[in-house]
């Protein structure tokens, strides 16, 4: 039943896109790799900037900074991102997060329990746009959401 909560899945994806808990991934080139005109020599450590990719208008379009879970409605895997490696909240390939399914299940169960017990509204005191305050959003939003 929890697996059927599709919209919750879209919301989790959108939160993972805009507020990625894991901001970057690391890989080491095991051999020389050519990417277009650039050669990455064997042994080079590469940092993949997940936060930047998730906020890149060239990949996501003009609404890149908007919180819009519906972008995952018709494209549950990539959210309409125009590059198949552009959305990596749980990493990719052989080192993909092994806790992905567990985390998703836990998130849906916990959110369901919270939503059935509380109602939420944005405080009129909310002093800033969430879209432009990525790192601070979690702590500050928490103190500006009133529950009843
Ligand atoms: C929202 C929750 C979580 C997020 C966003 C997350 C994200 C990630 C990311 C980005 C990686 C790195 C993948 C890579 O380098 O390509 C990773 C690896 C890993 N995650 Fe998670 N994770 C989450 C929850 C969990 C949970 C609940 C567990 C265990 C119960 C877990 C266990 C692991 C392990 C063991 C690895 C290392 C896999 C490997 O290197 O082979 N994660 N996770």
Automatic annotation (TrEMBL):
Can you supply one Gene Ontology CC term for this chain's record? membrane
What keywords is this UniProt entry annotated with? Heme, Iron, Membrane, Metal-binding, Monooxygenase, Oxidoreductase, Transmembrane, Transmembrane helix
Against InterPro entries, the record matches this protein to: Cyt_P450 (IPR001128), Cyt_P450_CS (IPR017972), Cyt_P450_E_grp-I (IPR002401), Cyt_P450_sf (IPR036396), Cytochrome_P450_Monooxygen (IPR050665)
Q: For heme, which residues are the binding ones?
A: 97
Give the main localization category. Answer: membrane
What domain of life does the native source organism fall in?
Answer: Eukaryota
Provide the cofactor list for this protein: heme
Pfam families referenced in this protein's UniProt entry, alphabetically: p450
Instruction: State where the protein is found.
Output: Membrane
Q: GO terms for molecular function, please?
A: metal ion binding; monooxygenase activity
Under the heading PROSITE patterns, the entry gives:
CYTOCHROME_P450 (PS00086)
What the record says about family reads: Belongs to the cytochrome P450 family.
* Entry protein name: Uncharacterized protein
Species in which this protein is naturally found: Ilex paraguariensis
